[in-house]
Amino acid sequence: MKILIVGNGGREHAIGWSLQKDSRVSELYFAPGNAGTARIGTNLDMAATDLDSIAAWAEAEQPDLTVVGPEAPLCLGLVDRLYELGLKAFGPDKQAAQLEGSKVFTKNLMNLAKIPTAESAAFTDAKPALEYVVTAELPLVVKADGLAAGKGVLICQTREEAAQAIHLIMQDRQFGDAGHQVLIEEFLDGQEASIHAVTDGTDLVFFSPSQDHKRIFDGDQGPNTGGMGAYAPAPAVDAELLESVTESVFKPLLAAFREKGIRYQGVLYGGLMLTAQGPKVLEFNARFGDPETQVLLPLLETPLLDILLATVNGALSSIDFKVKPQSAMTVVMASPGYPDQPRTGDIISGLDKVESEDQFLFHAGTSGSPDAPVTAGGRVLAVTGIGPTLHDARGQAYAGIGKISFPDAQYRKDIGHRAL
Length: 420
Ligand code: AMP
Ligand code: GLY
Prior knowledge:
Blueprint: E1 2-7, H1 10-20, E2 27-32, E3 42-43, H2 51-61, E4 65-68, H3 71-76, H4 78-84, E5 89-90, H5 98-101, H6 103-112, E6 120-123, H7 126-135, E7 140-144, E8 153-156, H8 159-171, E9 182-186, E10 191-199, E11 204-206, E12 211-212, E13 215-217, E14 221-224, E15 229-232, H9 239-259, E16 266-275, E17 278-285, H10 293-296, H11 304-312, E18 327-334, E19 359-363, E20 366-367, E21 374-375, E22 379-387, H12 390-403
Parallel strand pairs: 1-2, 1-4, 2-3, 4-5
Antiparallel strand pairs: 6-9, 7-8, 7-9, 10-11, 10-16, 12-15, 13-14, 15-18, 16-17, 18-22, 19-22, 20-21
The structure holds adenosine monophosphate and glycine.
């Protein structure tokens, strides 16, 4: 089979790594990929959001399957474009991807389906939003409606901060078009957990619950990033809690989509707050998390290809979905200056020393020759370790990280601290 993977992060390298082990996969392409994906397939010089180029390539090359990694091409309608060409693609179409692309859309859907989530109000104008925060209970969470690279959520302790957040999002348009609407929410307190499911629109399979670490520095300090590390399974979500969330969140969500006449196929990645009143949804993503994918896929027992094909073919109920009874941890190495102004172009050494049965290297912001790559982005790479316990997985991940170096690399030393 010929497969195209869209994206250039550690997530896409991990998807490719998982598929390349499958004897049915003969050709792997990445658009645009990185120095790591160039070792296992062919990188195509086209951005993940360049729908015209990707569709033209797909029309000429007829891949058997396209896997769309990031949210931006999903929300722009890449899957719709591939469907129009009669091609198979894993991931929601444009209408369904609003689950991630519009927080107001998703809040309405959750309210319709009575899914537990924060109380909220949505506004298309700044004036009523500013009036609302004068009397609403503090703290407040002010969210830009659209995609904002994880930055459009502002937690406000005072009314002044909330008013500033509304100005920033709606008037200054700090997040561009994402700020055409705001959602103002009650603040939820508790521990966060992520649950990744895959659905064909009817049936669901669940990966191990995971937790990622968003802040740049140890002890969850400093600015937010795309994610500096992750581990699974997260003990915060046990089998009983997963069962309850399946019934209270995931099944009603799919029913609500069906009621709207929308077929959702692909990943449902739910971000939950485990509050004293039970789990409540913070957000949904319409794709695999990065770096969560780098822990979820190494734990898979069932071939990833079977899951992806069954999803696009609407046959997920036929899958015997199994994960290994093991733990995984991934640690991200980032460029100096990340997340604000990452420095790039530094030579990376030691990459050839990593990789064993329990240790895997995933490239993200790397470019150049696969044998002598240089840093090319904020998050440069991740090393995943697996083992019988989270402690073992941690040992493998950090042993791998210890072998790699580039000038002023940053990585967190405390991934998994909540569970260990
Ligand atoms: P979101 O993109 O909506 O998941 O928000 C990003 C992060 O903001 C979440 O992972 C939470 O840490 C935080 N957050 C979002 N909504 C709330 C809320 N209602 N209460 C408390 N924290 C929140
Ligand atoms: N690691 C968070 C995300 O992928 O959204």
